[in-house]
Amino acid sequence: MGELYGSTIDEARRRAGCTAQVASVEASVRTDGPDVGTRRLRVIAGDLEVELLPDRGLDLGQVRHRGVPLAWVSPTGWPRPGAGGFGASFGGGLVTTCGLLSFGPPSVDAEGEHPQHGRYSGLSASVTRAEVTPDAVVVEAVVVEATVLGAHLELRRSVRVPLGEGRIELRDEIVNRGSREVEPMVLYHVNLGWPLVETGSVLRSPATGVRPRDAAAEAGLSSWAEFPEPVAHYPEQVFAHDLPTDRRVSAEVIAPSGLGIRISFDTSVLPGMFQWRVAQEGGVVLGVEPATAATILGRGDARARGLLRALAPGASWELGLDIAVIRDASVT
Hints:
Elements: E1 3-4, E2 7-8, H1 9-15, E3 23-29, E4 39-45, E5 48-53, E6 59-65, E7 68-69, H2 86-89, E8 95-98, E9 107-109, E10 112-114, E11 126-132, E12 136-146, E13 152-162, E14 167-176, E15 187-193, E16 202-204, E17 209-212, H3 215-218, E18 237-242, E19 248-254, E20 260-266, E21 272-278, E22 285-291, H4 299-304, E23 316-326
Antiparallel strand pairs: 1-2, 3-4, 4-5, 5-6, 6-7, 8-15, 9-10, 11-12, 12-13, 13-14, 14-23, 15-22, 16-19, 17-18, 18-21, 19-20, 20-23, 21-22
């Protein structure tokens, strides 16, 4: 059990005027700007404040720990679904879910056309639960990705934020509601920004090896673990991290200040992990991206390499991440 402002949870309950003084979940609707009409849920659980985006599949927007922002947010923000392609609507945030049928570059196969990183972040969730329990704030929702006479996938998401622990528990169950087997693909695009990501921030990876995606990444391969000094123009770099199989692993990003993030997941269901790095003035970003397939080159490459897994009608997968704040860590 965690602490709230130096006191135990029980002590905090005895002293606070009501639970909402230290923990709450608040719903709102945007009334202006490119995201007008879209919903927000604001979760407060002691030191941690989490923005949830129901009209982005209940993905995570900005997250603050003791007021310090942890996530990178792009200049596009989160406009209404359908407002342009991925590059014009990728708002970043702590977690953007890519899938449920594809991630990576656009592709076409028997399931139809797949935009960059799939359709998921343009789907609206039906929120089924949002409440403060004795030990956590919990939000649950259902998201459906379906086509007429095609794939019919239902994702049941739970976001649990334990009180006073500085941790977010994201759990997904993907159910095949259709009449034939489907091969889902999911990638969790965890986007970290300043001040967590700055010159000298370190990525600690559980990888047994690290490979560049292309020539731009090859140029930075020797220094993949340490974030460089930002410059005016910096080509994005993507690295593939080879993970140990069938075990729970963690990747950590530690800033020179000692602030850090730990991302934990199970490689039996998320065997791939990718690193996205842009050290460019005007918005540094470091992405840590666990995935169901160890390729970032799209659905066609995943199929050619035998990396797709079939999900039978009525069957389900359970996926998820834990994202925890690390305090007073060392980069060495």
